[in-house]
Amino acid sequence: MRILVVEDDQDLNRQLREALTDAGYVVDSASDGEEGHFLGDTEPYDAVVLDLGLPVLDGLSVLERWRRDGKTMPVLILTARDRWSDKVAGIDAGADDYVAKPFHMEEVIARLRALVRRAAGHASNEISVGPLRLDIKAGKVTLDGAAVKLTSHEYRLLAYLMHQKGRIVSRTELIEHLYDQDFDRDSNTIEVFVGRLRKKLGGDHIETVRGLGYRIGGDGAD
After folding, report:
1. What is the number of other CB atoms lying within 10 angstroms of the CB of residue 207?
2. Where, per the database record, does this protein carry 4-aspartylphosphate (predicted)?
């Protein structure tokens, strides 16, 4: 899952990037509203952390422009604790949730996890496809009740496919959501990790739809 952080405080920006990376996300960041708006307008993100008090272009204007242009990614706004008017304005402009500063990093991660999960249509932190189970909160995968040991890249790929279960996901979409903007999009990394996952999970769980991409949970799977 790929997250955009738009925060002008360099220390907080770095702390958010590090915490979200440690939580298994791929993170891009911007330090002003103009750059943040450009990235959100041109790159596909699974969620955005957006500060409202940004230089060049304020966060509320960034959010309003995204929504006006049809951008639907979940947005978590960061607000000053005593500015209730900012929170109301942010929600009215199209924000999905907010966190007041100062905050605990665990709260930001939990709220983002919930936003991404709900955007994919999942009500709980567990996604199951037959005997394959993903615990989003714990970051663990089990098959027939037994833990499956995955690398961080394998986990991110499997987690994205399971969030989109039943839907064909193209190679391009996987690259856009699993890697940052500097990734070599001509690489065969996706195919390599799909192959590794199939060895660990068995060949039946990840379906290749020729010419279109990959799918988990197709043909009526649970």
Report:
1. 16
2. 51
Q: What is the DSSP string of 152-176?
A: HHHHHHHHHHHHTTTS-B-HHHHHH
Indicate whether 17 belongs to any domain.
yes
Rounded to a whole number, what is the largest CA-CA distance in the chain? Answer: 54
The whole-angstrom separation of Cα 93 and Cα 103 is: 22
Last residue within a domain, chosen from 98, 119, 140? 119
Long-range contacts of 82-85 (CB under 8 A, 24+ apart): none
Q: Which residues contact 197 (CB under 8 A, 6 or more apart)?
A: 150, 154, 157, 158, 205, 206
Q: Is the pTM of this model over 0.85?
A: no
DSSP 144: T
How far apart CA 175 and CA 84 sit, in angstroms, is 38
Q: Which of 78, 10, 67 is nearest to 37 (CA)?
A: 67
pLDDT at 174 > cutoff 70 = yes
Per-residue pLDDT tens over the stretch 67-77: 999 999 999 99
